[in-house]
Structure formats: C-alpha cells, structure tokens
Amino acid sequence: MCGIAGEIRFDSRPADMAAVERITQHMIQRGPDSVGLWSQGPVGFGHRRLKIMDLHEASGQPMVDNELGLSLVFNGAIYNYPELRSELEALGYRFYSGGDTEIVLKGYHAWGEGLLPRMNGMFAFAVWERDTRRLFLARDRLGIKPLYYAETSGGLRFASSLPALLQGGGIDTSIDPVALNHYLSFHAVVPAPRTMLNGVRKLPPAHWRRIEADGSEQQGCWWTLEYGTRPEEQSLGFEDWQERVLDSLRASVKRRNLAAVDVGVLLSGGVDSSLLVGLLREAGAEKLQTFSIGFADVGGEAGNEFKYSDIIAEQFGTDHHKLMIPEQEILSELPNAFRAMNEPMVSHDCIAFFLLSREVAKHCKVVQSGQGADEIFAGYHWYPKVDEAANPLEAYREAFMDRDFAEYQRTVQPQWIKADYAGELVRDHFAMPGADSGLDKALRLDTTVMLVDDPVKRVDNMTMAWGLEARVPFLDYEVVELAARVPGRFKLPDEGKYVLKEASRRVIPAAVIDRPKGYFPVPGLKYLEGSTLDWVREALTSERARERGLFNPAYVDTLLQDPKSHITPLRGSKLWQLAVLGLWLEAHGL
User: Distance (Å, rounded) from C-alpha 499 to C-alpha 488?
Assistant: First the structure.
C-alpha cells in the first residue's frame, strides 16, 4: 500500500522531476517507510512506500527491469500473487524479490492488459514501456485504490491523491458545474471520471488507459458486473446460496490475512465486521486485534455501539480497543480530516474513520473492514421500495437522492444551474443492459458507482492518512460477482442482507445478527448544534464563502434558521453537506 505519482511529457522536454518530487512528498502519510524517484527522458515516477507484503528493499519502487524494458509504480495489494508467480516462473521469468510488486511488472510483460483480470486484489499502477515510449495506467475492478490525473501544459501527471497532484502546479482548480450538481444531488458522490475540480480527473474503476509518446490515448473497460442467476444456478435453494456466500467470504478473508505484519479488524458491532472477526478466527488468525469508536449521545441518539462490539470481542477473545471521542476533539480534528480527503465527503463517519485509524495505526499496519456488504447484499432501506415500485427509477431517486432538480436550483447561485446531471446519471444507469429487475439496477449503480466514490474512498483516505492499509473482504470480486447472482428474494427479507445474516449464524452470535440495524454514529454532525453549528455558520457566511459564489444566500439562511429540520432522505444534514464543500476547499487552499 503506497502513494504513486508520475509525469509524461509530449513536448520533447524531460519530465519535471521537481514537480514529481513535490507531489510524491505530499503523500508521505500514504507511504511513510521510504521514498523513491526515477526518470527516463519524458517520463518520471515517484513512490511513497508502506511495507506490508515484503519488507525487503528488493521490493522498493519505482521498480525498473532493464532486461524487460519496463518501469513500474504500483499501489495496492495482489492477494493471489503467489499463484501468479508460479505461472510466470513456468514461463521462464526470474524473480529477485518476494512481494507482489514484481508480479505486476513481469505479469504486464507476459500478458499486457490481459494481466488485469488475472489479479485478485486492489490496485492502481503505471507502467512505462521503454521501447515503445508508452505509458499504461490501470485501476482495480471496484476502485478501491485511487488514481487521479491532470493534463498540463505539454504533458500529463498522475497521483494517488488529488491534493498531492495539485502540488505540481499548473492545474485548473475552478469548480466543475457537473460535479457540483452530482455532489449536491447524488449524496455527495461525484462519479468518475469527474472530480470537483475542472482540471483533475480520475481513472474509472476497472479501466485502463494507454498514452502514446505523442499524447494520443486509448481507454478501455476490462471488467463489468453482470446481474442475474446463471442457468445452472436456477435450482439452488436458500441453503445452497448461504453455503456459497459463506464459502466465498471464507476464501476472501483468508486471502486478505496475507501480510508480513499484524492484521486487525475495524469492529463496529454490526453483522459485517463481526463476521470478519469470526472468519479470521476460523482461518487461524492469532493475536487478533479489534478496534471500535464512540461519540457523545446527541438528541437522544446513541453515539456508540460498544455493547455489540463487546459481545464479539469476548466471544472470539480479541485484544479489543475502545476509543471514546468527546465533541471538542471532533471539532479540533475535523480540519485534519478534511485535509486527508481526496474529494469532499459528506458522510459523518469520515471523522470516525479518521480518528479510529489514528488509534489503530499505533498497534498494526493492516486492518480488515466490512465496507461493501450493504451495497452487494441489499442492506439499505431503499432497496425494498425500489423492488416493490411500479417505477423503480423514480423510487430510487426519491429514496436516495438528497435533492431534486427544483431544490438544486434553489440551492446554488444562477451561474451554476446547467442541467439535472445527477438525474440523468441515474436514468442512464438504469437503462444499461446487464441487470433486468429494478432491484438489480439499483444494486449495480450503488456497487459500481456510489460505493466506489463514497464508502470505499472514505475508508482509503482516512486510513491512509495514518499509514494504515485497509482491506475490504466483501469487495473481493468473486464475492461481488456471486452476490450479484443471488436472487433478490434471498436478499431483501429481514431488513436486507437476509442471505448473509442467515449464513452468519454459523459463525457469530445471534445477538449481533438480530440487533436493530445501525450506522457508524456521529450524532454531533447530524444534529448540528452548539459550537459545531457555530463553526458551520462561519464556514457558510464568511467573506471567502461569499466570494466563491456557490450557494444561494437565502437558501443558506433557511437551513441555518432550523438545521434539524432539513434532513436528506438518507438522514443526513443538508446544512452539513454545504459546509463540507466549503471546508474542503478551504482546507486545500482552493
């Protein structure tokens, strides 16, 4: 797990290594163990290393193989690298290191873009082909690892971090009106390739991009998620699906326990993270550390779920750490959390992950996390509404989206009102082939778009801010593909994730499975009051905020007069959403 950066130039000038170094050094938190820089004519690479798989210097980056004529920077973890290494050795390749980085380099030489579907893991990487003078970029199936890029005068730069990429200079940092509409309408999700800034884009998940020496490009999608039961699975019953789900998760958890350092679990007390603890114990994990976080209660809403995480910690004998955060610490650390965000993220639990990661990093370098289960196994409250609706598209938009276009027009100043881009995005995704039912269309959109640019990005950003690698077993592509084939009637009952919950009974206590559904609670950011509300008011009414000219002052005043009354369908604060964008821009000097 690392931070990667690079530049390729098309104007016959050498790579600007001073810019590459500034970008690379800005990602020291992503890779605190070492730094590497390399250049060859028009291309230059930078790398910050977090040692996980192989602790030896032979796996250092940028990795250059002069015999093959390839150079590589790679961020991620390839869990099936031992099997790929055996295949490559059978083809005659020799290895000088023991980790997964060299597998990516030599696998690319052997198979080109055909390497991508062979890999099971999370990754973003860049390969420079010396002889063809071609740069190849790629990103994993579900975008677990980020990859941003920007076209600059005479070239192109890329990095694992958007704020780091800005350190190279020469980037248009004006607001993208399409992204603004997505952010304020589609629950702060800005789908790839866009970001909030006009001059920065991100490679979509499951895509590669090939850039020639003259700047011409090709881009391709190398994986798609198909929904619906296969013909040979039509006769499977509920018990059969439970067994398949559990077997698939067992394999995924075992793969992700692969490391030369200790592995822990972020334990919220819900089914998903609790099941990971149980499966790790089944897989023989010893000295297992678990971590939970809590906040002060607000408005009658509990700020922690320790009673459930305690059950799991006791059941499986983990070394359990509980972190209780007072409101004042939330306020003091929020600016740091915003600086850690690649893009503005409105979810309240960003600060929870940020502070929890700070604690976890004191004890281990790798954690497993339960993100993704709700999206792939239909755990959210809007899925039954979509499934039962005569018009699934409208049911989804009504249940998920923060604002309709009419309210969006009241939210922003006139110059930002262009079109209902977010509404068009949802409509276009629902019309795509590969998912027949309304439920499957909603699940596909949430898994391949919303999940990537909200929960997954949140976990990557907040953990990597402390040099902590997060692994997400529910997003193993084999688990995701299997979940897409499970019939909806086996997912929706019992408030969703039915097949997962029933399978979990073979591993974890019923008290955790049958509990009311919870979320990572940070009630102080949902029910804005006191010093938190004062901070938000200042962020939205300051001179800098007025100069940006984003929001309609009358709309802002309406929210400020009664913040608790203006809650989105997903139970988030509309006022907080506006404040987050301003605070993120402020944190990065934009």
Answer: 10
